[in-house]
Write a structure and sequence with these properties.
alpha+beta, 7-stranded mixed beta sheet, 6-stranded mixed beta sheet, 19 strands
Length: 302
């Protein structure tokens, strides 16, 4: 929990604050966007939460923060307990956001899928008793899908606890070399009924997305929603290959889905037609960027 002695000056006066240990991962801004915003190089409380819903969201943000940078001058233990019990947070149709983001993955989101053929964890939250107990109540874990090397966090501990099978691409397998299922190549793979693995190299060579029920696309750091521009976005820095990134976005146009559930960046639900339009727009924008990068590189300019 945040340290009031390290409270950032960018916070507005009041009970909730962000301290100087913030890593600007945007977890708090996703969970409580009407209270937290990016100010300079950190998140900050720009509007103190008022009312039951906003207070609940702010306490969720406090708990999910991967480095404990969000704090209160006076804690409401009842509301804190209610926020704790809300995780994993049900999104729709047995798909949950785990909360308790991990510093090991720079605060990446992770997700839980409850399924009659066996439950799935997509990337890894912090390993904490609250989540292991919740997963146990929901039927345990059969698979742990790792979208890329950056977001494995405590996957090994969850796998050991539940006897789950970890899935990762060989190009990123150095991050989890003892994974039970290491996949190869660039072709889509049917992992189980309703689950398809789609290789999307770009951010890393081994980035993979998980398509569930032709509705939910778990994208890791490959694709997310920007709530300010109201556009789909992909990384522009820390990219393995820009042209591969564009090709991976184009590949997704072949698939029908409604949700983008990202590791970093906001999640979004659109109609399939709106999602296709948003992807087409992203391809146009990133193709132009990649072409310019190629021209700059060939001319010897950065």
């Amino acid at each position: 929990m945040g340290d009031s002695k390290k409270r950032l000056d960018s916070n507005v006066p009041g009970n909730f604050f962000v301290d100087a240990t913030c890593i600007n991962c945007d977890t708090c801004r996703q969970l409580a966007p009407r209270s937290f915003e990016e100010v300079g190089e950190f998140s900050a409380v720009t509007a103190q939460p008022e009312g039951s819903e906003r207070l609940h969201q702010a306490y969720q943000a406090l708990l999910a923060c991967p480095v404990g940078s969000v704090g209160t001058e006076r804690s409401d233990h009842t509301r804190l307990k209610q926020a704790m019990s809300s995780f994993p947070l049900l999104l729709e149709a047995g798909v949950f956001y785990c909360g308790f983001n991990s510093e090991k993955s720079f605060g990446a989101n992770s997700y839980f899928i409850q399924h009659p053929g066996g439950n799935w964890l997509v990337d890894s939250p912090r390993y904490i008793k609250h989540l292991t107990d919740a997963f146990e109540r929901l039927g345990g874990l059969r698979y742990i899908f790792l979208t890329h090397e950056d977001d494995v966090a405590d996957a090994a501990r969850y796998a050991a606890r539940f006897g789950a099978m970890r899935i990762i691409h060989r190009a990123d397998a150095a991050a989890m070399p003892d994974a039970e299922w290491i996949v190869d190549g660039l072709e889509t793979i049917g992992l189980a009924p309703e689950f398809e693995l789609i290789p999307v190299p770009g951010h890393t060579a081994g980035s993979i997305a998980l398509l569930y029920d032709r509705r939910f696309l778990f994208t890791g750091d490959h694709l997310w929603w920007d709530p300010e521009t109201r556009l789909l976005e992909t990384p522009r820095r820390l990219v393995w290959r820009s042209r591969a990134m564009v090709q991976s976005i184009e590949k997704l146009l072949k698939y029908r889905f409604e949700w983008v559930l990202a590791g970093h960046g906001d999640r979004i639900r659109l109609s399939p037609a709106e999602m296709t339009e948003a992807l087409q727009d992203l391809v146009r924008r990133r193709s132009t960027h990649a072409d310019r990068s190629t021209i700059s590189s060939s001319d010897g300019r950065s």
